[in-house]
Each structure stands twice: as C-alpha cells, then as structure tokens.
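User: Reviewer 2 asked us to show a designed sequence for the structure in our supplementary figure. I'm pasting the structure tokens here. Could you produce the per-position amino acids so we can include them in the response letter?
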C-alpha cells in the first residue's frame, strides 16, 4: 500500500485533504492525524471492520480498547448512556482538550472498538486539524496513538511515518503534538471516579471540578504489584520501551549527575553505546555518551513534550544503555514519571 502523506497548515486547512480523508474513512480505511497530545491512528469508530484494521496496523492485542474522538460534547449522548452529571461538568471545563472519559456504551458502539468492554472511552480533542477532520468526515473517529504497539507514542508525523508508512492509507502532517503525553483517562462508569491513566490534566485539576477522585492503584506504584490488574487494559502492556536498557537515577540532583557520569564512563570504556537524558539545567555537567536534553525543570511541560521524541532518537542511535534523571512525582510530573518508569521497566537506582 502507498501511504499518502499530506502536510497541512492549521491556518489554511486544505479542503482537498479533508475531502480525501473523509473518503478513506467512509470506506473503512485508516488515516493518521495530529492531536494536541500525540498523533492518532483514525478509523470509523462505529465500523467494526475498520476498528479491526487499526489493531492489525498497530500489531495491537484486540482486548485493548480504542478511544472514540468526537467534535461536539453532545455526541457523548450518541455513544454513551447513564451519563452522570460529573461527565458534563468535566466536559464543560476540559473539552476540547486532553481528557478521555469512560462511560457505559450504547449499542451502536461495536465491541471491536471497545475491546469487548461494555464501556466506551470518549475524547473531544483540542487540535484544530483533528476537530475539522472529525467534523468534516461526519463520523466518530476511533484512534489509538499512531505507533506500532510497544513503541513510544508519536509526537511528530515523522514518527508516524517510521511506524506506519506502507500500512495505512494516509498521514496528515500537522506539525508537532504540543503536549506530548497521551490524554488523562477518567472512568465515570462506576460509583467513584477513577483516574486510569495520568496525563496533562492532573488529579487536582479534576478534583477542583468534581470533587474526590481516586487513582487506579495498579498504575501509580513505583514497583507495580503483579496482582493488581490495571482497569485500562492498555496500561498492562509493556509500553514505550526503547531498544536500549533505560535506567532512572533518583535522588539529589548533584549525586544523580555524579552517578550517571560514573556508570556512563564505565560502559563507554567497555565499548558500549551510551545515552544520557539530561535537562537544560544539567546538560553541561555530563561528560560521557550521547547527552540529550529533554526539556527544562523550570517548565515541566517541556519535559512532557520531549519525552517520546528522545526515546525514539536513542533508538535511532541504537543506544544500548540510557541513563535518565528522574522528575518530581507531583502534578504533571506524575504523568511524566508514569511513562518514564514504564519505559525503564521500573528500573530505578536511588542515589
Ligand atoms: O491522547 C490520547 O488519548 C491519544 C490521542 C490519539 O487521542 N490516544 C491514545 O490512545 O492514547 P491509546 O489507544 O494509545 O490509549 C488508549 C488507552 C488504553 O490504555 C486503553 O486500554 C484505554 O485507553 N481505554 C480505552 N477504552 C477503555 C475503556 N472502555 N475502559 C478502560 N480503558 C479504556
Ligand atoms: Mg498508545
């Protein structure tokens, strides 16, 4: 298959491109598109054959449900039933934006889309191109992150091309995904609201709107309890794993730098290909290996935005050992550490 790659400018949405994407989606094809979190791999959410194609293209286990993207809050009612008041309040404050809400599904949503579950994940993205695409195609778009299963989520069209060129119909290049981490997922299908995946919309931001909310205990622990099964099926798979062995160093920053310098030197001397994930504040202190700056500690959003790209860069260099600083485990840091710990297979050295 030849994948059509189209660059699109937010200020000048090309009618032609949207028309073509609409045709592809209507005939059950796959279109990758930008969102503010990461790139999505879209298909008609109510067409079970189209949903199956997503799983095939990603190499994704079919029990891992897809998020359905909508372009207007009222569409929530077409897809879900028993919608609690809290869902409307969250939608009003955080949509369009990086929040996914889990609700009980209506019959029109096929089990192929929900991975066999009786609930459906719904999100109204903020990205203009994403919204125009959903609106103009006149369908709901099921879209997981547009990476091969097990790879870091794509934050640029280039990343999507690396994983999907030749296996999907179209890639819409709308520039860099600004946030860089997947949406926060909140389950409102039961009695108590539960965060199934941390993201840029933090626990306290959500609590300000709907009151108390819990974390799914299976996702937040530093060394996961093997007996706890995450409520979001996708969170149980090994994810975002770089090719090299990633180790996180935790502790006072000066000690972290010293320890990483020591281990990096040791492995460089053995002839290994070594990489270091540094911050703006520390980048000049590292002496050995390929040192890459993820972002600034003064602005955690830059770290979130840089994480997946840096993991892919180390893959391209075939880095064998990657050493990373750790980040504060609060607000946005919680989402960053959740992804970084998974990428590291929870391998942390305390110094
Ligand atoms: O930011 C995002 O959410 C991006 C963009 C493209 O919108 N999408 C994304 O999709 O991250 P994906 O498929 O990579 O992650 C979806 C997660 C998985 O962990 C899945 O298990 C969970 O959402 N999920 C989907 N439907 C669910 C449901 N009904 N119940 C529990 N978890 C669900
Ligand atoms: Mg994903």
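Assistant: Here is a per-position design you can include in the supplement:
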């Amino acid at each position: 298959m030849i994948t059509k790659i189209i660059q699109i400018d937010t200020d000048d949405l090309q009618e032609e491109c949207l028309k073509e994407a609409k045709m592809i989606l209507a005939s059950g094809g796959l279109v990758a598109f930008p969102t503010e979190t990461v790139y999505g791999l879209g298909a008609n959410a109510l067409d079970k054959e189209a949903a199956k194609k997503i799983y095939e293209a990603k190499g994704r286990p079919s029990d891992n449900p897809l998020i359905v993207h909508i372009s207007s809050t009222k569409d929530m009612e077409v897809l879900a039933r028993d919608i609690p008041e809290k869902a409307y309040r969250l939608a009003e404050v955080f949509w369009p934006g990086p929040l996914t809400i889990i609700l009980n599904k209506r019959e029109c949503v096929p089990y192929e889309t929900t991975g066999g579950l009786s609930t459906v994940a719904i999100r109204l993205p903020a990205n203009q191109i994403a919204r125009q695409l959903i609106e103009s195609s006149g369908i709901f778009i099921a879209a997981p992150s547009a990476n091969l299963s097990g790879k870091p989520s794509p934050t640029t069209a280039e990343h999507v091309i690396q994983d999907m060129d030749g296996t999907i119909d179209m890639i819409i290049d709308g520039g860099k995904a600004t946030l860089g981490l997947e949406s926060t997922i909140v389950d409102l299908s039961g009695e108590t609201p539960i965060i199934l995946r941390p993201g840029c919309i933090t626990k306290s931001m959500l609590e300000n709107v709907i009151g108390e909310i819990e974390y799914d205990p299976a996702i937040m622990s530093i060394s996961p309890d093997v007996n706890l099964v995450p409520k979001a099926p996708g969170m149980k798979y090994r994810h975002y794993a770089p090719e090299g062995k990633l180790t996180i160093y935790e502790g006072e920053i000066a000690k972290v730098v010293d320890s990483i310098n020591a281990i990096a030197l040791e492995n460089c001397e053995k002839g290994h290909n070594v990489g270091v994930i540094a911050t703006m504040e520390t980048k000049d202190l590292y002496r050995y290996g390929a040192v890459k700056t993820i972002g600034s500690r003064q602005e955690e959003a830059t770290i979130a935005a840089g994480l997946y790209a840096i993991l892919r860069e180390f893959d391209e260099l075939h880095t064998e050992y990657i050493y990373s600083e750790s980040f504060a485990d609060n607000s946005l840091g919680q989402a960053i550490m959740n992804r970084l710990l998974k990428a590291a297979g929870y391998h942390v050295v305390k110094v």
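For the response letter, you might also mention the following. DSSP finds eleven helices and 17 strands in the chain. The first strand starts at residue 4 and ends at 7.
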